[in-house]
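sorry for the late reply, my laptop died twice this morning and i had to redo everyting from scratch. anyway the thing you sent over, i finally got around to it. pasting the sequence first so we're on the same page, its 491 residues, then the predicted structure underneath. double check i copied it right bc i was rushing
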Amino acid sequence: MILGKLINLCKNTSTHGNMDIDIEGVCYDSRKCEKNYLFIAITGLSDDGNKHISDAVDNGAVAVITEILSDESLERITYTRVDDSRKALSIISNKFYGSPSERIRTIGVTGTNGKTSSTYFIRQIFENAGKRIGVIGTLGAQFENMNRNLINTTPESLDIQMLLSEMELLGAEYVVMETSSQGVDMGRVDHITFRGGVFTNLTQDHLDYHKTMENYYQAKKRFLKMPSDYLVINKDNYYGERFLSESVGTTAITIGFGIGNNVDAKLTSIVYYSDNTQFSLQLRGESFDFITNLAGEFNIYNVSGAILVALQEGISYDSIYESVKNLSNVPGRMERVDIRGEFQVVIDYAHTPDGLYNVLSALRKSCKGRLITIFGAGGDRDRDKRSIMGEIVSKMSDICIVTSDNPRWEDPERIIENILTGVSKTNKEYRVISDRYEAIREGISLAQKNDIILVAGKGHEIWQSIKGVNHPFDEKEIIIQLAEERFGINK
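ok and here's the structure:
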C-alpha cells in the first residue's frame, strides 16, 4: 500500500521524504520490522518506541511515524511527525488490513470481572448454533484450529486488525473480544466497528493505572458508546445502572438485565442445586427457562449476558437452551483439578476483591467441610485492593494461606504485609508462606475429607513473573504432583 495513502488518513502531520513508497507491512515493535515496513514509534507503559527507531531502520523499515524528531537515523528514510502516534497506529492498521471489523460482526465485552467467561459462553452458544466465531482476550486469540498467544487482554490496535483479518480469511462470521479499560484508554479499539457490547460489572481494580474509580468508569463508558446495534448491561451493578442513566444519545438498543426492578431482562427463579443451577430470564413479555451445570451467582450473570447477546443476534431459544445446559467451564475459572481424593481443589483467576468474594461465595454453598484459600496479590498493581482482598478471604475462609502471586518487580514480603493488614482485622486462622509452591503443599497437607482448597489468583497462567522473568509454574500439574505425594493418587 502506498505510504501517502496511509499518512493522509492522519491529521496534523509533517512529512520529510518520499511518500510514494510501497509499504509491505506495519509494525510498532522494531524487532518485527522487515524490508519495506512502516515503523510507528509508540510509547508504552515500560518502553518508548522512539528509542528503537535505529533498530527498526536496520531491520528494514523504510518509513517512520513518530511524535518527536530527534533520531539521526531519520535522515536516511522517510519520516512523518504526528501529534499522537497511538492514534496513527490505530488508523493506519485499520486501513492497511482493509477494515475487517466492518464485515465480521464484532462484539466487545468489558468489565472488571467476567470478561473471559462471558466471551467463552458466547462462543459456545454461537458455535452450537452453527456460527463461525473467534475469540480475542486473556486466553489468547482462537478461531477453530487457529490459536495465538497474546501478551495483553486487549492487544495493540495493529495486532487486533491483523487477527481480525486472519480470522476473516479463515471464514469467521463473528468475533467476540475482551475490551479492557487500559486497552480502551490507549485507543487500541478506536477503529473497531463493534456491533454489540456487554458490560459485566465494575469493581475496584487497575487503580495503579486509572488512579480513581471515576477515571476507570469513564474508560468503560467510552467503550460502551462504540457499539452500533445493541448493549447488554448488568444493571444490578451500580456503574451499569449509572451508564444506562447517562446513555442519552446512544444509538444502540440498551438492554439492562438483573434481579432488581426496572430492568429490561429480569432474572428470576434462581435455584442452586448440588450439580446444576436453574433460572429464568424474562424479556419482552416472554419467560425463558434455563438450566446450567455452572455454579455461582456471578456465573448466572455472565451466562445471562451471553444469552441476551445470542437472542439479539437471532439465535433461537431452543438452540441457546441446549448450549446453556452443556456449557463448559473456562480454563482457570472455577476449575476443579482432578485429584480423585477425599477433598476438592479448585483453581480460579480471581485477583480482585469482588472476584474473590464471588468465588468464595459460590464454593461456600457447596462446601461440606472447611474452605481453605491460598492466595496472594500481583506486584506493580493496585496496592489499595490488597488489604481488602485479605479481609474478604479471611472472613470467608476457615483457613487462609497468604503467599505470592506474580510479584513482578516488587518485594513479595512487602506485598504480603499489605495483604495482612486486612487479614488481621479478623480472628480467623491464617498462615504466611511466601513460596507459592510450598503454600500449595501446605494447603494439601492440611486438607481433610470434604474440604475445598481454593488456589486463587493465577487461574490459567502457567508461569510466575519474578523480577522480569516468567518462571514456569503450572498450578494444575503442581497440585496433582503434591496430591500424589500425599496420597499416592493417580499412580
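The longest strand covers residues 265-272.
thats about all i looked at so far, will dig more tmrw
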